[in-house]
Amino acid sequence: MTILIAAMMLVLFSSTTFANECELSISATDTMQFDKKRLSVPASCKEVTLTLAHSGQLPKSAMGHNWVLSIAGDMQAIANDGMAAGAVNSYVKPDDSRVIAHTDIIGGGESTSITFSIADLVPNNDYRFFCSFPGHWAIMQGSFSIK
Ligand code: CO
Predict the structure, then answer these.
(1) 53: CA distance to ligand 1 center in Å?
(2) C-beta of residue 83 within 8 angstroms of C-beta of residue 134
(3) Can you tell me whether residue 119 is helix, strand or coil?
(4) Domain 22-146 is of which CATH architecture?
(5) 147 CA to centre of ligand 1 in angstroms
(6) Are 91 and 132 in contact (CB under 8 A)?
(7) How much distance in Å is there from the Cα of 18 to the middle of ligand 1?
(8) pLDDT, average across residues 114-130
(9) How many angstroms does the Cα of residue 49 sit away from the middle of ligand 1?
(10) Do strands 38-41 and 101-102 pair parallel, antiparallel, or not at all (unpaired)?
């Protein structure tokens, strides 16, 4: 009986661990900072779910944050086009094929999440995540890697 319970707990623990590896969380502050500079997921993840939380209090019109994923070389151009697209588009140009995934813009106290496939991503590429709110990308960015 004890062995059976131990085996069941092992199965439960293993599946929980696997699922958690494909779930990422990051938070952003009123001082224009992400709390992580690196995110990584195993290549075995079919889908990745990222949750972005805004731990500050400022409204999204003043200190909005989103989470945008692209290859490093596209980041600045995506941010520039996003600024032109405006708040109504969460500062991401609609249907921008350079954008792998992105969340909406959120303000203080809010959170949002997005689920996306990494099937087309190449482990050796240099992927970056960043916030495309005007003026934020240069500071609010980090690496995204596939293990
Ligand atoms: Co931001």
Answers:
(1) 11
(2) yes
(3) coil
(4) Sandwich (2.60)
(5) 27
(6) yes
(7) 30
(8) 95
(9) 19
(10) unpaired
Give the distance (Å) from ligand 1 centre to CA of residue 131: 5
Whole-structure pTM over 0.85, yes or no? yes
Q: What percentage of the chain carries pLDDT values higher than 70?
A: 87
Domain regions of the chain by residue span: 22-146
Distance 54 CA to ligand 1 centre (A): 9
In 3D space, the residue among 47, 98, 104, 49 whose CA is nearest the CA of residue 77 turns out to be 98
pLDDT tens digits, 10-47: 555 555 555 699 999 999 999 999 999 999 999 999 89
Quote the longest CA-to-CA distance of the chain: 64
User: How far does the centroid of ligand 1 lie from the alpha carbon of residue 107, in Å?
Assistant: 9
pLDDT top residue among 81 and 2:
81
In the chain, the amino acid numbered 15 is S
User: Any alpha helices (H) in the chain, and if so which ranges?
Assistant: 2-21, 60-63, 75-85
Interior/surface letters 108-122, b for 16+ CB within 10 angstroms, e for the rest: bebebebeeebeebe
Ligand 1 center from residue 83 Cα (angstroms):
12
